[in-house]
Amino acid sequence: MKALWRTAAAWLLAAAALCAHAGRPCERQPLQAAQVERGMALALATERALDASGAEVVVLARAGQDLSQYGLNYSHLGFAYRDSVQGRTVWRVAHKLNHCGTAEAALYRQGLGDFFLDRPYRYEAAFIVLDRQLQSQLLPLLRDNQRLAQWHTPRYNMVAYPWSQTYQQSNQWAIETLAGAAEPAASNRRQAQAWLQLRGYEPTTLRLGPLTRLGARATSANIAFDDHPNDKCFSDRIETVTVDSVFAWLQRSGLGGATTTVR
Amino acid sequence: MTPTQRPLLAALLGLSLMTGKVGARAHNDLSEVSATSALPVAVSVAAPAMLLAGGAVLTVVSVQASATGTVWVLERASDGARVTLQFAGAAAGASLAASGAAVVVTAVSTGWLISTAGQAIAFVPNQIGVSLLYNERVTR
């Protein structure tokens, strides 16, 4: 009986620790030739689909990881927008990237090639054309580095809680920035989150048990659970911003159209 | 420079490649994880067109630092025809290319891929490819 109590106590301590902090180093390997070929081919196909869409701004997603165990199709999104370089139309992607497994992240503006050379799990893109008014609100912001950073928090947590400002993951930055563009009064993260709640955004709830959280904490600098409310964390419900939940919300709210898939 | 080199060089020198390297990131995410990329992208190339037609096997003659970056000279053993690639920054100097190494040039729709033993060691974008490559860090 004592052993049972000891085990139970150990589990409770582990669970409490899990709702604290975490980390993981980064592996760097050269790209394979096939990865470059496929990534650039997907970038070109996406460029053509974006050109054909007639849009100026879309929400663009990639499948960096296999998240099918969570019922998710894509892992990461950013804003792709039309720009011009020396008279030529180009598409640029504004998005947030974590630095190699550290607890920090930064905003980047990249070409479609760079976006898809990131060793995706599946060579497939998806995008949603935003409502015209929202596009016109976002476009000047996406070209302005200062405004782009207005809703950015460098402290990164892959599973950041959507209604906290302690950390910020990539998809979260994107929708908070979208909120800030749509609502001028949403000039900071807290206000942007309030707008998202008002407009009915619903995050994905991941069921992550203590063992999964323990593994994540032990191996990843970019995973933390201490921003999640205790009642949700201890009941294994980890809410975070996912591409699939953003796409569903954009369509549900009328802020975006149908999903276009590119392979 | 031979006459056949000039059009290709002219086409590529005019391209405004802002990025010096692309790709190479690690993932384990629900949103995404990224590292500094590691694939050098040529900002200019001087070569007989046939050498970049694809499938050519070349030997690395030299990898040298220049005032503006790194210069690679590649050569085809059969006739001594040479390709000179220029890269911005030092990334291309610390790459997998070493003097004496054999590399393969593969033509793709967006440019030319240079690889060795299946690993990509550089990319030379054509006019289609150059519009797809750009990398700017917006925040520190």
User: Which whole number gives the mean pLDDT of chain A?
Assistant: 89
Shape of chain B: globular
Unreliable sequence segments of chain A: 7-25
Mean pLDDT over the full residue set of chain B: 74
Please give the radius of gyration of chain B in angstroms.
Answer: 15 Å
Q: Numbering strands along the chain, what is their spatial order in the largest sheet of chain B?
A: 4-7-6-5-8-9-10
Q: Which spans of chain B have pLDDT < 50 for at least 5 consecutive residues?
A: 1-20, 23-29
Number of strands of chain A: 8
Structural class of chain A: alpha+beta
Characterize the biggest β-sheet of chain B. Answer: 7 strands, antiparallel
Strand content of chain B: 35-45%
**Tally of DSSP β-strands of chain B:** 11
Strand order of the largest sheet of chain A: 4-3-2-1-5-8
* Number of H/I helices of chain B: 2
Task: Tell me what the structure shows.
The complex is a heterodimer of chains A (263) and B (140). With 263 residues, chain A is an alpha+beta fold. Chain A has one domain. Chain A is 41% helix and 23% strand. Chain A is built from ten helices and eight strands. In chain A, helix 1 packs across helix 8. Chain A is globular and about 55 Å long. Chain B is mostly beta strands and 140 residues long. Chain B has one domain. In chain B, 9% of the residues lie in helices and 41% in strands. In chain B, the strands form two sheets. Chain B has a seven-stranded antiparallel beta sheet. In chain B, strands 1-3 form a two-stranded antiparallel ribbon. The longest helix of chain B has 9 residues. Chain B starts with a helix and ends with a strand. The N terminus of chain B is likely disordered. The interface between A and B is large, with 71 and 47 residues.
